[in-house]
Amino acid sequence: MRPEDDDIFEAQRPALLRLAYRMLGSMAEAEDAVQETWLRWQGADRRSVDNAPGWLRRVATRLCLDQLKSARRRREVYIGTWLPEPVPDTSDADLLADDLTYTLMLALERLSPLERAAFLLHDVFDTPLEEIAATLERAPASVRQLAVRARRHVQSDRRRYPVGLEEGRRITQAFFEASRKGDVAGLRALLTEDVAVMSDGGGKVIAFPNVITGVEKALRLFSGLARKYGDLSRIVGPVTVDGQPGMLTMTGDTLQATVLELTEGRIAAIYIIRNPDKLGRIRVLAAAMADGASRGVSGP
Q1: Do 165-294 and 3-157 have the same topology in CATH?
Q2: Span 165-294 CATH architecture
């Protein structure tokens, strides 16, 4: 392989990783897909490739579509609620260089694999329609319909009320202080009436298996958690995941990332990720926060 071929791939690697992560919701699986794309690039006849970025996108997308088939089968037997892997905004600016929030990542799970690919390639990565059609082996008109259907499914989850960093952190801090103390009045003032609470432990650590919906059920949940674990819980530091505010906490020896969806200054959804297999990048960030705290350096 010529040195310039390495350069071509490395220039596209961040975008390929971003596409694969958005397709799969798992950083480990995304990295595997990009590595396999690299191997296929090594074995390709590059004299016949007139559009290297398009060729690489096509290969990565098809690998992700194949991966989604097996991933969906695994999720059918997944213990409890499945949530996407949280990637902190501080970890890789190129990886999160779009407007897809964590909530939208979860919304993408409702799409078929082809709808997901068409939406991401068309609406997020601005890929030409003819290239998407060749990638998905569908007519351009069919691809356009896939993108339209996908857009319709996810548009209701788009953030209509952007929240500034400081406002998001203020609400997040207030929520965690109230939840640790079991402050029902404080929590009630922060949560929407139809708030949803989801917890992903993957069978590896304790997590509640079903989605908790409604403010009264959420208040009972957090009151019970405060009585049982309040003294064991401590805040590691604030975090932003896919543009949404959150917090890293430890309960005993268990690390968790909690991401909040905010609507008009109140919390509409709470995503609690505890499965250790999904916290690789979060763990690195938590260690850096702990190290910074020990040296008197403030977090991100």
Answers
A1: no
A2: Roll (3.10)
191-208 pLDDT, tens digit each: 999 999 999 999 999 999
Closest CA to 269 of 165, 161, 168, 197: 197
| Residue 95 in this model has a pLDDT that exceeds 80 | no
Estimate to the nearest angstrom the gap between the alpha carbon of 3 and the chain centroid.
Answer: 34
Q: Which top CATH class is 3-157?
A: mainly alpha
Question: How do the domains of the chain map onto residue ranges?
Answer: 3-157, 165-294
For 99, what's the count of Cα atoms within 13 Å in the CB-facing half-sphere? Answer: 9
Residues near 9 by Cβ (< 8 Å), separated by ≥ 6? Answer: 38, 41, 56
The gap from C-alpha 170 to its chain's centroid, in whole angstroms, comes to 22
CA dist., res. 190 & res. 212, Å (int): 16
| Model pLDDT for residues 120-162, shown as the tens digit of each residue | 999 999 999 999 999 999 999 999 999 999 998 887 665 555 6
User: Is it the case that residue 163 has pLDDT exceeding 80?
Assistant: no
